[in-house]
């Protein structure tokens, strides 16, 4: 009996997406089936190019065909992706599929480092990525991307002046650091900082993006409020070190996003500076800020734990020299890549299971 596209669909309906807990056919992930003699071709459309389950799903598809259609067929799944979104009807930036805030509570724990490396890892996986440096008082993204002296163009589009983001390493960037010279001591008042962030969201030409990351300043400030009042945020990532004071501040950031009026889903927690490792003795781990605090916090609040990043000199050097670690090929780039995959996975799960976030209405 000749095989048909229907036979193939029935076989692939046996393959589950382990995260979304439905089969690939119901999820509409199978496209372009074709049969050529003994060869079977089809496309699998995943929810993110950074899908950590790509190989597993591919092998499950091949097994399902062999088991249900015939063991002699050669199976060629073409693994692609179309990043999911809950923002397509949002009034502002509907073409930005996911807006992800990176927050910490305590200062200096590595929000900007994680944001920069996450942006690079996601872009390397093939996603379209933008990054807003929302730290108006202490911007660090221009340095971390080696483009401190760039100046964004302003263009008139449909009668409105819009900022064109700087593009570096394939990532669209905006920062107050591009708009004010580094040696110019601008004294920013709170409302001015808030209006700068509003411009970065409302008056910047982001185009189509899969992920727009927002590197927040420390604390739970006006900037955080401006962000949630200006756009519906898909979700937040929390960065902390294992140190007691950092964990206490991280809890405040978690509590802020969880407030019923704000209600931004927390998609994961990253433990940065989890332990120190000397480059020449990579087996040795020194838990100088304490051990396992980030993991315990994520358990207590039932937040997915995205992983640990060690304290290593090269991460600091990469930040200062403007070439994020994730662009290299070493232990720290692997750690960032793992975290990026896990974050992308949590974003996809969130989009499958929850409605879009709603913007916080202004109240005085
Ligand atoms: N895992 C790490 N290993 C080594 N150095 C790190 C690591 N993470 C961050 N750093 C360094 O620590 C410093 C603070 O990091 P970063 O600027 O990312 O923190 P932040 O939370 O964004 O700070 P702020 O609250 O001021 O915005 C930087 O010099 C950075 O290079
Ligand atoms: Mg920072």
Descriptors:
single chain, 364 residues, alpha/beta, GMP Synthetase, Chain A, domain 3, Rossmann fold, eight-stranded mixed beta sheet, three-stranded mixed beta sheet, 10 helices, 15 strands, globular, binds adenosine-5'-triphosphate, binds magnesium ion, MIP18-like, NUBPL-like, Iron-sulfur cluster carrier protein, iron-sulfur
Distance between the termini: 72 Å
Strand content: 15-25%
Radius of gyration: 22 Å
Query: So what's the CATH class of the largest domain?
Result: Alpha Beta
Second CATH tier, the architecture of the largest domain: 3-Layer(aba) Sandwich
Q: What general form does the structure show?
A: globular
Bound molecules: adenosine-5'-triphosphate, magnesium ion
Could you describe the 3D structure shown?
The chain starts with a helix and ends in an 11-residue tail after the last helix. Helix 1 crosses helix 2 (about 55-70), helix 3 (about 110-125) crosses helix 10 and helix 5 runs parallel beside helix 6. The strands form four sheets. The protein has an eight-stranded mixed beta sheet with strand order 10-11-7-12-6-13-14-15, sandwiched between helices. It is an alpha/beta fold and about 375 residues long. The mean pLDDT is about 95. The protein contains ten helices and 15 strands. The protein has two domains: about 5-80, 2-Layer Sandwich (GMP Synthetase, Chain A, domain 3), CATH 3.30.300; about 100-355, Rossmann fold. Helix 8 (about 295-300) links the parallel strand 14 and strand 15. Bound molecules: adenosine-5'-triphosphate and magnesium ion (MG). Adenosine-5'-triphosphate (ATP) binds near residues 111, 135, 311 and 315. Binds and transfers iron-sulfur (Fe-S) clusters to target apoproteins. Can hydrolyze ATP. Keywords: ATP-binding, Hydrolase, Iron, Iron-sulfur, Metal-binding, Nucleotide-binding. Belongs to the Mrp/NBP35 ATP-binding proteins family. In the C-terminal section; belongs to the Mrp/NBP35 ATP-binding proteins family. Homodimer.
